[in-house]
Design goal:
108 residues, alpha+beta, Thrombin, subunit H, 6-stranded antiparallel beta barrel, 1 helix, globular
């Protein structure tokens, strides 16, 4: 079994919304990295589906990206980020940086 991940993941537990065409469903973002996410949702998806993900951030911000489903173990799924705006990529980088900083400062 090889190690596939390029980026470390952080646990976020944030509420989000998945959308595929006209279908939309709430989800919980379990963890996130620079290149992908792991979610829990009741939206029926299969490997290869392309979805839109919106996540509410602290201080009223939001982050939106396009995902491609890479694995499904209902109700959980993993997806790689295939499209994200430069602004949202920067927001995501800040979330990851803040998490690393807070873990480091707390000695975890």
């Amino acid at each position: 079994m090889g190690f596939k991940r390029k980026h470390s993941r952080i646990t976020v537990g944030r509420i989000g919304r998945l959308q595929r065409g006209a279908l939309s469903a709430p989800c919980t973002v379990l963890d996130v990295s620079e290149s992908g996410v792991r979610l829990e949702s009741r939206l029926f998806v299969k490997k290869g589906d392309v979805l839109q993900l919106g996540i509410e951030l602290e201080h009223g911000g939001a982050l939106t990206c396009q995902l491609e489903v890479v694995y499904v173990r209902t109700p959980r799924l993993g997806a790689k980020i295939v499209s994200i705006s430069p602004e949202d990529r920067e927001r995501l980088a800040h979330i990851l940086d803040d998490h690393v900083q807070s873990r480091f400062s707390h000695g975890d």
